[in-house]
Amino acid sequence: MISNREMNQQSVPYLPLFYYVVAAVIILAVAWLITRKAIPALGTTFLMLAVLGALVFLVTPLIMLFFQIARPLFGKYQPYIYFYAISLFILFCALQVATRRNLVHAALFLCLTFIGVAGIFIMLNAEFVAVVQLLIYAGAITVHMLFAIMLTQNLTGREIQSHNRQVPFTVLIALGLAVLMIVIFLNPVKISDSEIYGPNKKWAVQTTMENMAVDVPNITLIGKSMMTTFTLALWVTSIILTMAMIGGLILARKD
Amino acid sequence: MYDVSYAIIPIPIWYYLVLSSLLFCIGLFTVLSRRNAIGILMGLELMFNASNINLVAFNQRWGITMTLQAFSRASNIASPVGQMFAIFAITVAAAEIAIGIALIISMYRHYKSVDTESINLLRW
Known about the structure:
Chain A is mainly alpha-helical. Chain A has helices at about 5-10, 15-35, 45-70, 70-75, 80-100, 105-125, 125-150, 165-185, 220-230, 230-250, and strands spanning about 190, 195. A two-stranded antiparallel ribbon of chain A has the order 1-2. The longest helix of chain A has 26 residues, at about 45-70. Chain B is an all-alpha fold. The chains are: A mainly alpha, B mainly alpha. At the A-B interface, helix 1, helix 5, helix 6, helix 7 and helix 8 of A face helix 1, helix 2 and helix 3 of B.
């Protein structure tokens, strides 16, 4: 079993050709569909999704190649660049969820937000949680939302407006809460004699190496603790899921 | 061969906390300003994801310290407590959204629309 530390010390050269192959396939498929007139109109959402897809598939391997070439100079910025890229992706897609008038477009951007959050989980050494997030959120819940949108369409009468009249007030509230939370989180706090929480001016390693994930694969850790420490939580969760199924059936029954 | 000591430098935790707070506030704005009931549920899910990011970030930073102080004196324990919390939170959120959508469907069956501004039977 290779640990994380040993994997990082391998010297396998990395060629991100796979990304360009996938990008070429997608671009060719979309171009073929456009010539066949299967995509009706190039609306804003389509262009946004196309730009996002191009950024993900064409820019990411460039960034990886850049860091592979310029590693002695810029190596220490690599995790930060990845974090900024993923977090900008998440926040952009979340803003589209909040502001799109068409609800199906908002659901699609919600799916992209879930995928971005899964990327953040992988950066936090939580691979199993990332895959659970992809399976349940980006898989099941997105489809569930789309089915619900389909079943609750406004078939007759006026189209529902997408936002109510309290939007400016809500913007103020959300911005105020964001400012408050960020001011609290960026406040330096002395935890112990050797640890300070908060933004520093230098690129300091804020934790010691023992606080990183040790050489146990993530899924082994979760599997063992799920069966010993968290058994009760597991059983209660199974009861909750059964209750949710039964409750959903009863509530949505045709009566 | 290469100097990879940078690769396991973790990102300071407040990066993740700021990200999760921004995501939470975007979700809050979505819940408070959308008229469609399913749009409100979408904002709710954004808030769930923000709190899950918080949980896993705290686990990466302080998981071992918390386990040492709480459970034992061993020095080679990795604790997945935050990740377990996040997994169960994802599961319970999925169940809750299922119930929510069932409620919305029964509401649609009664009112023939899911506009939350026009549901005013119990209003003044």
